[in-house]
Write a structure and sequence with these properties.
By secondary structure, the chain is mainly α. It has three helices and no strands. The protein has helices at 10-23, 27-38, 65-70. Helix 1 (10-23) crosses helix 2 (27-38). The longest helix is centred in the first third of the chain and has 14 residues, at 10-23. It is elongated. The termini are far apart.
């Protein structure tokens, strides 16, 4: 691991420390997880981060995904 240093204001540090304690992990591990969560996945297309987060209201949208995404089906 590479050691690094960051600066937080008192409020940010208190929140991070409280959340880390609630999860039973160190502040450093909490920050590592937050950074991993904020970074795009390497093996996936960037738009895959949002897969499954949009509802079309159409119960058959999974069967007509091309029409929903592209407006037409090939």
């Amino acid at each position: 691991m590479i050691r690094t240093q960051i600066s937080l204001d008192a409020g940010e540090y208190a929140l991070v420390k409280c959340e880390a304690k609630a999860l039973g992990i160190s502040v450093a591990e909490f920050v590592r997880r937050a950074i991993r969560h904020g970074l795009p996945a390497r093996s996936q297309a960037p738009w895959m981060r949002y897969a499954g987060l949009v509802e079309s209201g159409n119960s058959r949208s999974s069967q007509t995904v091309d029409e929903v995404v592209y407006g037409s089906k090939d």
